[in-house]
């Protein structure tokens, strides 16, 4: 494992801690500022919206500097935001600190995903991204429960001060271990925006909003749900968050393992099971043992979707992945904000602390329907691509050797008396840009996905083996 992945995981650990620890200390923050639980829930929504807007904005600005320098700047911004939260005299300042810290979140994971993928072989990209996100899942096993316990014992302000220190450690890790790779290859904003012409990128982000949003509908209000409905003590919330973190850790491993092998089946299974688990949580939240089991299961199923969705976006936006990757991280948090807001509305309407689970089930079920649509469109693109014959341009035909004007059938090679065999060009799949060829035929060089499907692309060239 490259040491740079360890540095990225350290940064992810700090970011994951501050994102999720607010759930464990939400009642304490609400009491300190004299606001209701749904109002305090805006600290979750505000953070999430900050990620949504900060991810594309800071990623675009970061195209002018090296990825390492940008990662260091983002960790510095993260430290400032958490320090402001720890010192906040009123609720509005606390919310401002959360938003400042959140601006670093999406761009860090978006740029970090690209850096992690570039450090390894193509067939190991999802696994490398998974290692970076391991820091986020470990934060939910160690950082979030530890921060919750610290907040209950010494006050929530101490928790956010400790998170700021974690940010300093992450900053030093990036500075020491991440290599200086220069500016991104696609430094032009116009080139990065071209990735969003692919409808599959938008579908993936919509699945991200709805699918992972379903998790946050339940987890945002987990402290009052477990204490008021399941009957746990305030201190027990710490250990319940450990279980949720363990579930996320296992889901991350599962998603990383299968995203490189069976991406769509993984999404179908995880999204469908997540919607069912959230429905069951409405009933199991009334029993201590069943509530703990269901909470762990929701953590695992929710995070099992993260790596497949992130890899899908990277595959679809392979010509300009940085902005699309960061935007998808923003989509995760847009789902968080939407779910936290909708869940708060159901509680404020008097439907009880378990009512957000219904919202989560509806959101995750909608994501499952979108995944079916995405798979259908992908199969149609593949079938259309497999029947395409790429021909030589007129200029090439005038200068090609005589035998090339009457090429062999697709998938076959012509063997002239001298020189290497010349083969009929082959078609490409629309999903990953890799070559689709008949068994026993020579491979062809893959063409960039953008040039294959852009409506204004130049005439395709014949590819010789």
What does this structure look like?
The chain has 465 residues and is mainly α. It has 2 domains: 3-383, Up-down Bundle (Growth Hormone, Chain: A), CATH 1.20.1250.20; 387-465, no CATH class. The protein has 18 helices and 2 strands. It has helices spanning 3-33, 37-40, 42-61, 67-87, 91-118, 125-154, 156-177, 189-193, 199-219, 222-230, 236-259, 263-284, 288-303, 306-316, 321-348, 355-386, 394-399, 449-453, and strands at 413-414, 422-423. Strands 1-2 form a two-stranded antiparallel ribbon. β1 (413-414) and β2 (422-423) form a beta hairpin. The longest helix has 32 residues, at 355-386. The protein is globular and about 55 Å long. The chain starts with a helix and ends in a 12-residue tail after the last helix.
Write the layout of secondary structure elements.
Layout: H1 3-33, H2 37-40, H3 42-61, H4 67-87, H5 91-118, H6 125-154, H7 156-177, H8 189-193, H9 199-219, H10 222-230, H11 236-259, H12 263-284, H13 288-303, H14 306-316, H15 321-348, H16 355-386, H17 394-399, E1 413-414, E2 422-423, H18 449-453
Helix pairs in contact: 1-5, 1-6, 1-7, 3-5, 3-15, 4-5, 4-7, 5-6, 5-15, 6-7, 6-11, 6-14, 9-12, 9-13, 9-14, 9-15, 9-16, 11-13, 11-14, 12-13, 12-16, 14-15, 15-16
Helix fraction, binned, reads over 70%
Please name the CATH topology of the largest domain. Growth Hormone, Chain: A
Order of helices and strands: HHHHHHHHHHHHHHHHHEEH
Largest sheet: 2 strands, antiparallel
Strand coverage percent = under 5%
Mean pLDDT: 76
| C-alpha end-to-end distance | 35 Å
Number of strands: 2
Question: What spatial form do the alpha-carbon principal axes imply?
Answer: globular
> What is the topology, as strand order, of the major beta sheet?
1-2
Helix count equals 18
Looking at the overall shape, the CATH architecture of the largest domain is: Up-down Bundle
- Runs in which pLDDT lies below 50 for 5 or more consecutive residues are 387-412, 424-465
CATH class of the largest domain: Mainly Alpha
Strand-pairing-aware structural class: mainly alpha
The CATH superfamily of the largest domain turns out to be MFS general substrate transporter like domains
Radius of gyration: 24 Å
Structural domain tally: 2
């Amino acid at each position: 494992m490259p040491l740079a992945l360890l540095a990225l995981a350290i940064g992810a650990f700090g970011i994951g801690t501050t994102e999720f620890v607010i759930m464990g200390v939400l009642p304490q923050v609400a009491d300190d500022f004299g606001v209701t639980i749904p109002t305090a829930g805006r600290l979750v929504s505000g953070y999430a919206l900050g990620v949504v807007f900060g991810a594309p904005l800071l990623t675009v600005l970061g195209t002018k500097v090296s990825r390492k320098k940008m990662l260091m700047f983002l960790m510095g911004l993260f430290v400032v935001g958490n320090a402001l939260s720890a010192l906040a005299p009123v609720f509005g300042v606390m919310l401002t600190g959360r938003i400042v810290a959140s601006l670093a979140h999406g761009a860090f994971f978006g740029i970090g995903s690209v850096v992690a993928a570039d450090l390894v072989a193509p067939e190991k990209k999802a696994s490398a991204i998974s290692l970076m996100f391991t820091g986020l899942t470990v934060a939910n096993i160690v950082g979030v429960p530890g921060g919750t316990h610290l907040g209950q014992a010494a006050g929530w302000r101490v928790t956010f001060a400790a998170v700021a220190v974690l940010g300093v450690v992450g900053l030093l890790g990036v500075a020491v271990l991440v290599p200086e790779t220069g500016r991104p290859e696609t430094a032009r904003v116009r080139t990065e925006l071209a990735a969003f012409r692919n409808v599959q990128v938008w579908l993936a982000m919509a699945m991200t909003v709805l699918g992972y949003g379903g998790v946050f509908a339940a987890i945002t209000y987990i402290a009052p749900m477990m204490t008021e409905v399941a009957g746990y003590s305030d201190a027990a919330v710490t250990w319940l968050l450990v279980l949720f973190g363990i579930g996320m850790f296992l889901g991350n491993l599962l998603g990383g393992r299968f995203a490189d092998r069976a991406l769509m089946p993984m999404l179908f299974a995880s999204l469908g099971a997540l919607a069912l688990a959230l429905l069951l949580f409405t009933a199991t939240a009334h029993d201590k043992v069943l509530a703990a089991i269901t909470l762990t299961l929701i953590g695992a199923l929710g995070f099992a979707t993260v790596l497949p969705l992130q890899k899908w976006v990277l595959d679809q936006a392979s010509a300009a992945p940085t902005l699309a990757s960061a935007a998808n991280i923003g989509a995760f948090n847009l789902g968080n904000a939407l779910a936290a807001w909708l869940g708060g509305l159901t509680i404020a309407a008097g439907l009880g602390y378990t009512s957000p689970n219904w919202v989560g089930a509806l959101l995750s079920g909608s994501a499952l329907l979108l995944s079916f649509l995405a798979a259908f469109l992908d199969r149609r693109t593949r079938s259309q691509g497999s029947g395409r014959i790429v021909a030589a341009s007129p200029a090439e035909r005038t200068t090609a050797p005589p035998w090339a004007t009457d090429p062999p059938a697709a998938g076959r090679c012509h063997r002239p008396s001298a020189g290497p065999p010349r083969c009929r060009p082959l078609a490409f799949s629309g999903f990953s840009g890799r070559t689709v060829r008949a068994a026993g035929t020579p491979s062809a060089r893959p063409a960039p996905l953008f040039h294959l499907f852009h409506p204004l692309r130049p005439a395709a060239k014949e590819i010789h083996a």
